Amino acid sequence: MFADGSQGRRSARSPFWPHPRGRANLGRCRKQGRAKALTNDAGARNVLQDSVSNAVQERDGFDMALHGAACAMGKAVCVGLLMLGGCSVQLVAPYNPDLAQRASSLQAEIAAWDLTMLKTAGTQAADPRNSAVIATLNKWRGEREAMLTLAISNDPHTIPCAKATGDIYALVSQHIPADLKSVNPPATTSSDDLASTSGCETVLVADIQAGIDALQSTLQYCQLPWLTDASFTNPPPAARTQAAPADQQMTVQKSCAAEFRPAPGVPQNAAEFGHGRAVSGILTTLQAITYIESRKRALSTAKVGL
Amino acid sequence: MAILDDLQAALKSGIAAGAASAQAQGVNLAQDALNAIEPNLKAVVAELAAIAQDRADGNIGDQQAKDGVTTQLNRIPTLITEATELVAVALQAIIDAVLSALKAAIGTATGLVI
Predict the structure, then answer these.
(1) Which of A219, A235, B30, B88 could form a disulfide with A239, with the two C-beta atoms 3.0–4.6 Å apart?
(2) Could you say which of B84, B96, B106 has the minimum Cβ distance to residue A161?
(3) A254 touches chain B (CB under 8 A)
C-alpha cells in the first residue's frame, strides 16, 4: 500500500532507471545529509521515510532496469541499493583548500606581526591606538569573517561540536585525578548557538574572533600613558615626538615586550614556537584549523584513490 | 540463494574494510595527539612558567599576569575542540572505507554500478 492509501501500480513511469523523480530524490537525499538518518532525529526520519516511500513508487522503473537479481531479493534490497548508491554519510566538512590556504596565510601574517611588535615594544608603533595596529586587527577580523563563511557553508551540521566536545571531555576526565579536575568542563569560547549546531572546525574558525579580541586586550600593556588619544588621530608632528618619561617608557617597554617575547621551553611544533604569548591563543586556533585541513586533504586524496 | 550469499560476503568485506580503516585511523589519531595536541599543552605549561617568571622579575604586574594565565588556559578548550574534530575525521575515514567496500562488493554481486 502506498502512502496515499492506494494499492497496486501507480501511473505509468519511465522504464529507465534512475527515474527522473528518483534522481530528484537522490539529489534531495544528498542535500539533506543522509547521516542524519542515522540519528533519531524526527526530521531525518521523515526524510528517510519519504525517500523509501518514493523509492517504492519507483518500483516500475526498478523492475525494468534491474531485470532480476537484485529486485528478486525484494523491495528492501532495492531501497538499500538506492540509499547506498545515492547517499553518503558526511560527518565532517570536506577538505576546503581555500580555508586551508587562508588559515595558513593568516598564521604566517600574525607570526610576522608578532616579531615586529617585539621590536617596537615601548614605542608608538606598538601602541594599540596606532592606526596601523588598529588596521591590522580589523583586517584579521575581516579575514575571519571570510573564513567563517567558508566554514559554515561547508559544514554538514551532523555532529554538534558542543555535544561532541562534552563527550570527549567526559571520556578524558575519567583519567584526570580528582584533585586536578575543574568543577566545570572547559567550554569553547565561541557562541553557544554556533557550538550547539555546528561542527568543531566551524567553531574553531569562529574562535579566531576571541583570539583577536584577547590580543587587542593584551595590547593595553603596550599603551604609552604619556600620549593622549589625540596624538593618534591625525597627529601633528609635535605630538609624535612628544618626549617620554624615562621610567614610564621602560615600564611599558618591559610589559609590552613580555607579551611578544618567546618563552623558553616551548616545543618546536607548538603553535607559538618563536613567538610571544600574546599571539599564542590565536596561533593555536589557526594551527588547529590548518592541521585539520591537512588531515582532510589526506582523506580526500585517499577517497580519490579508491 | 546465491545473491544472498554474495550480499553477505559484501557485508563481510565492508566490515573488514572498516576494521582495517579503524586500525589505521587509530594510529593516525595517536600520531595527531603527539603532533598537534601534546606540544601545545607543553607550550601552555611553558608560557605559565614564563608568566610567573616575568611577574617575579617585575616585568609585568598582577593584572597582566592574571590576563596571561587566562589566555593560556583558554587554549585548552581549543585543543579539545581540535581533538574532537580529528576524531570525527577519523570516523569519516572509517565510514568511507566501509561504504566504498560495500558498494564495490554489492556491485560485483549484482552487476550494478552504485
Answers:
(1) A235
(2) B84
(3) yes
